[in-house]
Amino acid sequence: MRLTIRLVVTWISAVAVLGMAAPAVQAAVTPVNPGPAAAGKPISWSNMNLPPLDAVHPYDAGEGFAQQIEAYYGSGQVRTDQAAVAASALRWTRGWLKSACGGLGPSIVRTCKAMAIFDIDETLLDNYTYYSTTSPVFSFIPATWGPYQATCKATANAAVTALYSRLRALGVRVAVVTGRNATSRDVTTACLKANGVTGWTALVMQEPADAKLTAAQYKAQARAALEKQGWRIGPSIGDQVSDMSNGHLAHGFLLPNPMYYIP
């Protein structure tokens, strides 16, 4: 369930949080500590995510921030910020492979069983065309989400899919861990491939038994299961802190998403 919140936020000005009213500046990728959920694991981000107004329920930005979100995407600043996070993830992963696996050769990395985790929505794929046309705008509408997925109108986030390819070229195996329901596996697989995303080692999707879990719990559980298979998880790349909460990874990389928050 999603909870749409339309409030004039008081924690800090909307302009400062979303960073969209002033002319765009170069993205700054900085460490962030989101609290106990990070379990001591570092997360780097682009300072462009919705802050956790509500730590229990998910929420959508809704109509109140439409102008700022449209400006952020329309100016192309979102791509600049995505590229900054992706570049940071690549640099960090290369260093991690040297220390964790003893080198960067693909055969060395494959023997090491190094793995990266990628989310799908607002990470590998961009759903701005969906959220910008919902009614109310920038809200999740369950009745329209399924048909949207089926038509594969999502587009690739170029910097993130390039990172995906670069890591695979280094010998890193990739697991795609998504909150999408397993009933959409076929259309999701087809859409990823249509956007140039192929060659994953695992595509983990929510099963009925996962419905009682938060996104953070479900994704940590998925990473733990991969670790039990012998994979050594380095980076986890996503657009929500819940993509990299509760351990079972070495470093999280948080992409910009001013449209919604999922704990």
Key attributes of the depicted protein:
seven-stranded mixed β-sheet, Rossmann fold, alpha/beta, 11 strands, 9 helices, 263 residues, single chain, two-stranded antiparallel sheet
Tell me, rounded to a whole number, the average pLDDT.
85
Q: How many beta strands in the DSSP annotation?
A: 11
Per the principal axes of the C-alpha atoms, what is the gross shape? globular
CATH superfamily: HAD superfamily/HAD-like
Query: Would you tell me the structural class of the helices and strands?
Result: alpha/beta
For the biggest β-sheet, the strand order reads 1-2-10-9-4-7-8
According to CATH, what is the topology?
Answer: Rossmann fold
Largest sheet: 7 strands, mixed
C-alpha termini separation: 11 Å
Low-pLDDT runs of 5+ residues are 1-28
**Overall structural domain count:** 1
In DSSP terms (H or I, runs of 4 or more residues), the helix count works out at: 9
The CATH architecture assignment turns out to be 3-Layer(aba) Sandwich
